[in-house]
Batch of 2 targets.
Target 1
Amino acid sequence: MNQDELKRAAAIAALDYVIDGEIVGVGTGSTANHFIDGLATIKDRIRGAVASSEASARRLAAHGVRLFDLNDVERMPVYVDGADEIDAGLAMIKGGGGALTREKIVAAVADRFVCICDASKRVARLGRFPLPVEVIPMARAHVARRLTALGGEPRLRQGFVTDNGNLILDVHGLEITDPAGLEAEIDHIAGVVASGLFAMRGANVLLLAAAEGVERILRP
Ligand code: 5RP
C-alpha cells in the first residue's frame, strides 16, 4: 500500500468511532479528507459535523453532510483528525495544513480525539517536522524573536493566510523534550494565537495504518 492508501485505511477505521445521531468534529488535511469521504457514506446516521477549516467545510457540504456552527454545539463525542507527527504519549504536532487553531478549538469541545495516521507519522520525539505557530500579523517579529530565544528557527510560511486572517511561523530545529511544557510556554507569548503542539490535549486514540493493518493505540 502507498502512503495515501494507508491514510485512507486509518480514516475508514475511524468510522467505527462515529456515534449514531451525534455531531462529529472533523479535521483538515489529506487524511481527514478520506475520513470526510467515508463519513459521507454514513451521513444519514449522524446529526451532522463541525469542520475545523473552510476547506473541510466545503468538502463536507459537497457531500451533503449537515454543518453546524461550533457555538451551537453542546456535545460532541468525537473529533477525528490527522497529524504531522505523533509520539508514544499521543502528543502531536499539527498544522501542516495551517488549520491548527480551529483544529485545537474543535478538539477541545470533543470528548475524544481520534487521530488517524499512516505509520510514517509516529516518532520517538516530536520536532523534526517544523512546529507551526499561528500569529497575529502585527506580532510576527516579536513572536519570531521569542521563538528564537526558545531555541527554534522560525520561518514565515510564504504566501499563506489562515482561515482566521493570521500568519504562520514554521519553527525549525526545536528539541521538544517536554511537549506540554513547550505548548504552555509558546501559548503565553503575546501575539500567539495557537501552536501546533497538541500535548495538553493530545489524542485519546491513535489509528495507525501500516502494511500489516490498522493498529489501535490508546493514550497511556
Ligand atoms: C492540518 C493538519 C493535518 O492534520 C496534518 O497536517 C496532517 O495532514 P495530512 O493528513 O495531509 O498528512 O494538522 O492543519
Note: The helical segments are 3-13, 30-40, 54-62, 100-109, 140-149, 179-187.
Target 2
Amino acid sequence: MRKFIILCLLAGMAMAQTPKPFGATPTADQLKWHNLQYYAFVHFGPNSFTDKEWGDGKEKEDVFNPTQLDCRQWARICKAAGMKGIIITAKHHDGFALYPSKYSTHTVRESPWKNGKGDVLKELSAACKEYGLKMGIYISPWDRNHPTYGTPEYNQVYVNMLKEITTQYGDLFEVWFDGANGEGPNGKKQVYDFPLFNKTVKTYQPHALIFSDAGPDIRWVGNESGFAGETCWSTINGAALFPAYDKPKHLNVGDANGTHWIPAECDVSIRPGWFYHKNEDDKVKTPQALMDIWNKSVGRGANLLLNIPVDNRGLVHENDAKALLEFKKLRDEYFSKNLLKKGTFTKKTGADSYDISLNKAQTFNCLVVQEDIRYGQRINEFAVQVKENNEWKTVATATTIGHKRIVYFPRVKSKDVRIAIQGTLAKPIIANVELYDTPAN
Ligand code: FUL
C-alpha cells in the first residue's frame, strides 16, 4: 500500500511538471529537423555544363559528362563544414534525371558519363552513408523536356519518378518541391496534383519532411538571400498557403499563434547562381557574409540550406570548399566557448524573467536562447539585460525566439544576465541559454 501511495505521488509530480502544449507544435520528425540547422543544397545537371540557370529541356544528353565526379568529395567537404545533410537536384526544370529513371529518356543513362551506366543518386546515397550525412531530394515538378508535361498523364509520370526516388536510395530526410510552373515542350502548363505528390512521399518515406511554399512540413522563407524575418514564427495559418504562394513577407514572418507548425527554411547559394558558372569562381560568398546569413537564418529560428554549385568536373570547386571550411572555423570562433558551462553559473526562472548569475564577472557580447518548442512557440518580445552597479541595464531587445535566437550587443562585463520576457502568448518555457564573447564587435 505504501509503495502504491509513493508511486501515485511520483506520477502526480511528473504530471504536474509536464507543461501543456500551446497552439500548433512540431511533430517528432520536425523536432529532429530543427536540430539539423544547416545542410547543403547541390544544384548539378546539364546547366553545370552549358552555363545556364534554367535549361530549356532541349539540351543533348551528351552535354552531361563530368570527368571527375566524386560524391565522396562533396560529402567529405560538407561533413568538415559542419553540415548535416545534402539535398540534390535529382531533376531540375530541364527534366534531365541524375538517375536512370524508367519514366524518362532524358537521363544519365542516355549520357556518355560512365557509358550510360552511372547513377548520381546511388553514389551520393553511398557517400552520405559513409560520412554520416542525411540525404534529401529536389525533384522539379516543372519539366521542360517530358513529352507528357502539360497533360494529366504527367502527374502520374511524376509520381512514378517520385516512387523510384523514394524507394531506391535509402532514407530521405527531406523532399523539396519547387513552386516553379512554366510551359513544357508542347507549350502547356501543368496543373500539379500536389495532394497526390505529398501522399506518394509519405507512403514510401513516412519520416521525410516535405518542403514547398506551402509546406506541409517546411515552408519557403520568402526570399533567396538566406534571411528569415526578424520576427519569425514557425507557426503559420496553413490553410491560406498554396504552392507558388505570392506573399513572401507572410512566409518570411509566419503567424503568431498560427494554426500549423510549418517552420521556415532559408535556401541561398554560396555563389550568385544556383548552378556552376566559371565566371562566378571569384564570386563565392566570404566566410563573413556566410556568418551574417547564419545569424539571420539559424539565429532567427529557421534552418539554413546552403547551395553549392558542383562544377563541370563533378567536384565542389576549390574556392567554395575554402569558403565553407573557413566559415566553419569562424563559427567555431564565435560559438565554441560557451560561458555558461555547468558549474559556472546559477539560474532562476520567474514568470517573466530568466536570471543567470555567473560565479564571477565575465566579458561577453552575444546571447543564444532557445525555447522548448515541444510545447509550442510562445515568446514574442524580450530584452537582454545585465546588472551594472546594482542596476539592470537593457543591452538588446528582440522579438521571437522559437528554436533559436542569436542576439548581439556591445561587449559588456558583468556577473548577472537577465532575459526579461516582455511579451508572450503563453507561459514562456526556455530550454537553453548560451553566452559568448564573439569576434562580432
Ligand atoms: C527556384 C528555381 O527556379 C531555381 O532554379 C532554383 O532551383 C531555386 C532553388 O528554386 O525556384
Note: The chain is about 25% helix and 25% strand.
